[in-house]
Amino acid sequence: MTLTEVRRMSTVDLLRLSARGLTVRPGRTALSALGIAIGITALVGVLGLSESSRADLRAQLDALGTNLLTVAPGQGLLGDEGTLPDASVAMIERIPTVTTASAVRAVDATVRRSDGVPESRTSGVLVAAADLDLLDSVAATVREGRWLDHATERYPAVVLGATTARRLGVGPLAGGIDVSVAGRPFTVVGILDPVVLAPELDEAALIGTVVAHTLVDDDLPPSTVYVRVQPDQVEATRTVLGRTAHPAAPDEVRVSRPSDALAAGAAADRSFTLLAVGLGAVALLVGGVGIANVMVVSVLERRREIGVRRALGAPRSSIGGQFLVESVLLSLLGGFAGVVLGVAVTWVFADSQGWAVTMPWEPVAAGLVCSLAVGSVVGLYPALRAARVPPTEALRSV
Asked: Helices in the chain by DSSP H: which ranges?
């Protein structure tokens, strides 16, 4: 065996020697790795939560459908609020691509928990007369009790939205509960689950159209019409809804697609995700600077070790390689810890929100690659500095 072969250090020996260097001061090693771990946790956690949120939104849209359109009165030429004709629902139903059309009609009345509550305290609850097939149109479900039917639409019965029930303090319906609508007692027959595609119904008290006419003297034109159309005919139907609902003034009709608002919210979430990823990258950079600082200090503290090895014939490449590998191992240690913490954070938070936990492999791989890259970059300077230490100068510093 030649002298060159003796001096050359195998990869296994280099890894073993570098790993031992990290165990000399375990406290400092852990704190240095913590900076990288925080950055990787932020990157993996934010990307995982964002993907889980989008997956939950896609699942909701798949279950609820994206073929719901809403028709509501817009502003007239003079800026006043327009109205829909009473026959607008029937006219919309004549469109061949429409499967269902249901309306709610705003009722000028207040809702209170009881007559003892001042009239000024309405809790922001709206009263609306609802068609009996409304639930099918908006894909809503009843959390407790039942929906209006041909009998209850004629009598003082009310179904509360999820937010309305909470604001009025209405709990379990066992034994019967009454609320005051326009000064008259109405029996709560049902409470809805939150309506994803029509969140305005969450803040409403829904009564039958027949009993609603006994509360007001004026007509009750539709305030919002919920229209389900054939999935492949959404845009085509959207273009004709305005002039069909109000042929005399189609420009005063506002047609919208609720699922577009959810998609816009998802786009806004992506912007916040990018911001959070940027903050995680900053934390990763700070952690990298901390590792570089620790490795420079380690070079200064181990000058005697470097001098002895150089005096025994160790080449500069072995000295520099050892400190470079130490930097990479230290960064990878923090990267692995950050990936584990990021996955755990994603799992716990997504599960608490009722989302399906989605953890794509890309953030995990990106986290490990980033930690490897950071360790390699920040370890170059300490490695070069260690390789340039002369044996005589290192021994004189002892």
From this structure: 3-7, 11-23, 26-64, 88-93, 134-138, 162-168, 209-212, 234-245, 258-301, 303-311, 316-352, 361-378, 380-387, 391-396
Domain ranges within the chain, ordered by starting residue: 13-61+263-396, 67-258
Measured at the alpha carbon of residue 374, what is the angle toward residues 368 and 377, in degrees to the nearest 5? 140
With CA atoms as reference, report the closest residue to 365 among 335, 390, 333, 322. Answer: 335
CA distance 398 to 390: 13
3-state secondary structure of 119: coil
Place of tokens 């027959």: 189
Whole-model pTM: value is 0.62
3-state secondary structure at position 239 = helix
Element (H, E) at 255: strand 253-256
Pairing of β 157-160 and β 184-192: parallel
Neighbours of 91 (CB within 10 A): 18
Contacts of 127 (CB under 8 A, 6+ apart): 106, 107, 108, 109, 110, 111, 181, 182, 204, 205, 207, 212
Contacts (Cβ under 8 Å, ≥6 apart) of 66: 231, 234, 257, 259
Query: Rounded to an integer, what distance in angstroms lies between the CA atom of residue 205 and that of residue 224?
Result: 15
pLDDT digits (tens, 9 = 90+) for 314-344: 777 777 787 888 888 888 888 888 888 888 8
**253-256/184-192 β-pairing:** unpaired
Q: What is the spatial distance between Cα 309 and Cα 307, in angstroms, rounded to a whole number? A: 5
Q: Give the total residue count for the chain.
A: 398
Give kind and range of the element (H or E) at residue 192.
strand 184-192
For tokens 């031992």, what's the residue?
20
Sign for the pseudo-dihedral over CA of 171, 173, 175, 180: positive
Report the C-alpha gap between 7 and 120 in whole angstroms. Answer: 90
pLDDT above 70: percentage of residues in the chain: 84
In this model, does residue 119 exceed pLDDT 70?
no
Contacts of 345 by beta carbon, 8 Å cutoff, 6+ apart = 41, 45, 48, 49
Q: Is 192 exposed, middle or buried (0-12, 13-18, 19+ CB in 10 A)?
A: buried
